[in-house]
Amino acid sequence: MHTGTTLTQFIIEEQRHIAGATGDFTALLNDLATAIKVISNAVNKGALIGTMGALDSQNIQGETQKKLDVITNEIMIRTNEWAGHLAGMASEEMDEVYAIPKQYPLGKYLLVFDPLDGSSNVDINISVGTIFSILRAPVPNRVAAMADFLQPGTQQVCAGYALYGSSTMLVLTMGHGVNGFTLDREVGEFLLTHPDMKVPEETKEFAINASNRRFWEPPVARYVEECLAGTEGPRGKDFNMRWVASMVAEVHRILTRGGVFMYPRDTKDPSKPGKLRLLYEANPMSMIVEQAGGASSTGHERILDLQPEGLHQRVPVILGSKNEVETIVSYHKAA
Ligand code: P6P
Q1: Does the beta carbon of 283 sit less than 6 angstroms from any atom of ligand 1?
Q2: Residue to probe by mutation, ligand 1, list 65, 275, 312, most atoms within 8 Å of CB
Q3: Distance 120 CA to ligand 1 centre (A)
Q4: Cα-to-centroid distance, 5 and ligand 1 (Å)
Q5: For a substitution probing ligand 1, which of 276, 296, 313, 315 has the most ligand atoms within 8 Å of its CB?
Q6: Please, which of 151, 182, 248, 328 could form a disulfide with 193 given CB 3.0 to 4.6 Å?
């Protein structure tokens, strides 16, 4: 019986298009897939193995860490540090760059990740995810410095996420479209189930944390008010609103049926230009959405063009169906 296209088969076939490919990248993606399977198991077992609940610690974001934040970060580090594909790693859960231990060889890639995005949902059994981005190390086989990670999103060689939902999915792009794989736990393999994913250009669904409404800037307030006005308003159609508080779940919904996701700049904390982090949330998700025919902007600039200034830099994020993002950007330009 044919099992369908496995992730390994897909990556090797992709590798054939890359001149000079050595198999390093393929092996790195396979290690990433292993980490995601282990994380899926830890998330799925949850209370059965005591991984629920919060710790007393906070990460550099000032966010209380869940046990699973730390556990999943460890899984990503231990599964990817040893094979000689990486010159360094960076994570939402680590203040500084992670140096590959001396006993392991160094490689030519950098791995940046949010090991458990949406972790505030994990205790209430709502979907969470892992977001990752792969960059080329400016100097391969040398311990990466923090500055090596500060590359615009256009430099990513791969971006992807795992969604730990009703099924565990791995969605990724290597710059030639977006493909989704579903974990078959009995076989232990990711199988290609969502080839060539595309974001519908039109939508009737928007996602924003409406509790921040009084802090929004006028262009965002205008867009949301017009959606809420429905058929009686300028849009001439009714909209649905969603907010899962898990970016991976929101982006997956948008890839599947369209929509627009907004975590805009707001005046709630003027010191923060947005909530989401550029290197390991906004950039990988922007590459995925653009590769699927959508768009991603700060409201003023294309996110993938931004020159990062810090490992944990925050940015405003407006991404999804192209026509909606372009409308919101036009409102920012008119403001
Ligand atoms: P709020 C999760 O903490 C996250 O980084 C994204 O996954 C999610 O979209 C957003 O923050 C939720 O933020 O303010 O609604 O809790």
Answers
A1: no
A2: 275
A3: 8
A4: 33
A5: 276
A6: 182
pTM: predicted TM-score of the whole model, two decimal places: 0.95
Measured in Å, residue 209 CA sits from the centre of ligand 1 at 9
Ligand 1 centre to CA of 246 (Å) is 6
Angstrom distances, CA of residue 189 to CA of 3, 7, 171, 183, 193: 10, 7, 14, 6, 12
3-state secondary structure the chain: CCCCCEHHHHHHHHHCCCCCCCCHHHHHHHHHHHHHHHHHHHHHHHHHHCCCCEEEEECCCCCEEEHHHHHHHHHHHHHHCCCCCEEEEEECCCCCCECCCCCCCCCCEEEEEEEEECHHHHHHCCCEEEEEEEEECCCCCCCCCHHHHCCCHHHCCEEEEEEECCCEEEEEECCCCEEEEEEECCCCEEEEEECCCCCCCCCCEEECCHHHHHHECHHHHHHHHHHHHHHHCCCCCCCEEECCCCHHHHHHHHHHHCCEEEECCECCCCCCCCCEEHHHHHHHHHHHHHHCCCEEECCCCEHHHCCCCCCCCEECEEEECHHHHHHHHHHHHHC
Q: How far apart are CA 67 and CA 80, in angstroms?
A: 20
pLDDT means per 10 residues, the chain with 335 residues, are: 83 80 89 97 86 76 80 97 98 97 97 95 94 97 97 97 97 96 95 97 94 97 98 97 97 97 94 94 98 98 98 98 97 95
The closest alpha carbon to 127, from 250, 289, 279, 281, belongs to 250
Q: What is the pLDDT of residue 2?
A: 58
Name the closest-CA residue to atom 9, ligand 1: 247
CA 62–ligand 1 middle distance (angstroms): 14
